[in-house]
Amino acid sequence: MADLWMWLEGLPLAAYIGEGWLFPFLESIHVLTGTFVVGSILMVDLRLLGLAAGRYPVSRIVKEIVPWTYGACVLSVVAGLGLFITRAGHYAANPAFQIKMVLLVLAGLNMGVFHLVTVRGIARWDDAARPTAGARFAGGCSLLLWIGVMLSGRWIGHLL
Amino acid sequence: MNGTFGGLIRTLDGSAVQALAVRLLSEVPGFPPMIQTVHLLGITAIMGSVVLIDLKVLGLAIPSQSTPDVIRRLMPWTWCALPFLAASGLVFVFARPNRYFVNPVFGTKLAMLVPALILAATLQVMSAKNPGLWKEPGAARVSARAIAAVSLLLWIGIVLAGRWIAYADYLFTMG
Known about the structure:
In chain A, about 80% of the residues lie in helices and about 0% in strands. Chain A is elongated. By secondary structure, chain B is mainly α. Chain B is about 80% helix and about 0% strand. The interface between A and B is medium-sized, with 28 and 34 residues.
């Protein structure tokens, strides 16, 4: 892995981002899109938990909100990668960064399990103000994991 | 130290409030990133409410829900987030008033925040007074969409400026 980090840091693009206005620019885009990712997924999570928008079917909320989440997520990842390559080795060794990555993977797995498994029986609880236990669990996990991603993400800069 | 905020800086500098903020930030382990995360979660609520409302009013998001219902349900999130945003932000401002009140990026952020809040309240009042306005083409709907467009740009600007406060030195010492 160390070779990969070295290679990334050696890219002309990494130097270009690290030396100029691009680093703070990408950082501000990362914050903008990251908060939008969590702000939009929060609506889905609260619906899954049975705490909001009870009169709208879960499937419709997911269908109308999640594409926005994905769009913002792609931008956030691109901006994040731009930040990462400037000091890849440092970030990879940063405990806050490592925790953030673990939490991101867990959030992704949580989403995957929900979309592949939990959603199968959705017909039974789509209109329910309080969805099934599995769906509520997914919503709760998502909420906590994304708060954790934000906290650990914000902590990265305090450890460098 | 003159300018609009000169008096504020003189009041805060050396005050007990400043001493408390400095102590909290420097002596409580993990206090700065935790308070910054509270601020980020506040922005998250803004994204999930007023920003999404702007997108809805512009006809870009949440097509199946009615606009007055979206505004009624989501706007309270913005108003509830504001005290948390203000409190978490003020901890840093109180600790180092000089860093913020003479910072042009911080000034720009506040200058965008005031109209953004007024526009959010305007949209909410417009929708509450005339929930039918979203269905009838006309001047009211056009102005509501214009408000939403400006509001969206302001909130994007506020978030970007927030992150740039820390880089103001870099911005203004170039060349």
